[in-house]
């Protein structure tokens, strides 16, 4: 696992909105951290800046040895290979099988399914199976992703990220579209991945209760600025 560092990161979008205002913070290797804040506070921008999808207007972002904010093209794609990413909307290929969706994690740079399947080795297949097993999705391996429930889809998305063998895992509102019991079980999966693999996990949440229950450190954002950074368990709504 790797640390994540933001140094005076400002992000201004072309429409003039400043989504992050000089944010500096360091997340240690192996931490399980929640970013909380209202809609529009900059959570999603922060995650997208850490994995290089949104370049900072000024400041610096590093994920372990990768100076993400300074990378372009192929070097950036390689850095992203070490960063697992989970989205609110799952981003699965609904018509493909669970297996194929999870295999994509090992071949994110491949142009077509055909190339990917042609190149998949026993090592790749084994890693995919182990990733699906760790989120309890092995028995659905040949089901079509589109036929799964929301919680199952998010577990497949977690397996896809794990099959990358990432050093850090970023999750942008991963449970926002799930019902409460399912949201809890997906958060429990993320927490157990953090605990068992020591993987650095950074997760955007708009519900403080989930942050208190499943993470150890909470970073509160308001209008693009850090307004709280401390233990998750003792954070109150007033913070
Ligand atoms: P969230 O609050 O979960 O980030 P939003 O509804 O704010 O979701 O944004 C959904 C998508 O629209 C995102 O990809 C975001 O980058 C984009 N978006 C949000 N606000 C703007 C805006 N003012 N102009 C252009 N795109 C935007
Ligand atoms: P959150 O994830 O906390 O909802 P976002 O990072 O999505 O916050 O948004 C922060 C601010 O930046 C909001 O005002 C939003 O409208 C704006 N924003 C987000 N994405 C874009 C975009 N692609 N273009 C322009 N403005 C955006």
Automatic annotation (TrEMBL):
Superkingdom per UniProt: Bacteria
InterPro entries: AAA+_ATPase, ABC_transporter-like_ATP-bd, ABC_transporter-like_CS, ABC_transpr_PhnC, MetN_ABC_transporter-like, P-loop_NTPase
Cited SUPFAM superfamilies: P-loop containing nucleoside triphosphate hydrolases
Keywords, comma-separated and alphabetical: ATP-binding, Cell membrane, Membrane, Nucleotide-binding, Translocase, Transport
GO molecular function, one term: ATP binding
Signal peptide boundaries: none
Annotated SMART domains: AAA
UniProt keyword Nucleotide-binding, yes or no: yes
ABC transporter domain: residues covered: 4-239
PANTHER family: AMINO ACID IMPORT ATP-BINDING PROTEIN, PHOSPHONATES IMPORT ATP-BINDING PROTEIN PHNC
Xref: NCBIfam families: ABC_phnC
The protein's name in its UniProt record: Phosphonate ABC transporter ATP-binding protein
Organism annotation: Demequina litoralis
Taxonomic lineage: Bacteria, Bacillati, Actinomycetota, Actinomycetes, Micrococcales
């Amino acid at each position: 696992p790797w640390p994540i560092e933001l140094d005076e990161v400002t992000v201004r979008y072309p429409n003039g909105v400043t989504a992050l205002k000089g944010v500096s913070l360091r997340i240690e290797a192996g931490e399980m951290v929640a970013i909380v804040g209202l809609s529009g506070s900059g959570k999603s921008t922060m995650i997208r800046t850490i994995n290089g999808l949104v370049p900072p207007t000024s400041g610096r972002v590093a994920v372990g040895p990768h100076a993400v904010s300074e990378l372009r093209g192929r070097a950036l794609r390689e850095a992203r290979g070490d960063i697992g990413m989970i989205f609110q909307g799952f981003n699965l290929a609904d018509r493909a099988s669970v297996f194929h969706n999870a295999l994509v994690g090992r071949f994110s740079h491949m142009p077509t399914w055909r190339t990917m399947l042609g190149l998949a080795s026993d090592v790749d297949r084994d890693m995919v199976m182990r990733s699906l097993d760790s989120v309890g999705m092995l028995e659905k391996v040949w089901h079509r992703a589109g036929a799964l429930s929301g919680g199952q889809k998010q577990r497949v998305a977690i397996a896809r990220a794990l099959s990358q063998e990432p050093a850090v895992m970023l999750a942008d509102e991963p449970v926002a579209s799930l019902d409460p019991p399912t949201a809890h079980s997906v958060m429990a999966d993320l927490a157990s991945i953090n605990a068992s693999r020591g993987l650095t996990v950074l997760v955007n949440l708009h519900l403080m209760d989930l942050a208190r229950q499943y993470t150890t450190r909470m970073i509160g954002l308001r209008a693009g600025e850090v307004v709280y950074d401390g233990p998750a368990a003792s954070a109150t709504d007033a913070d």
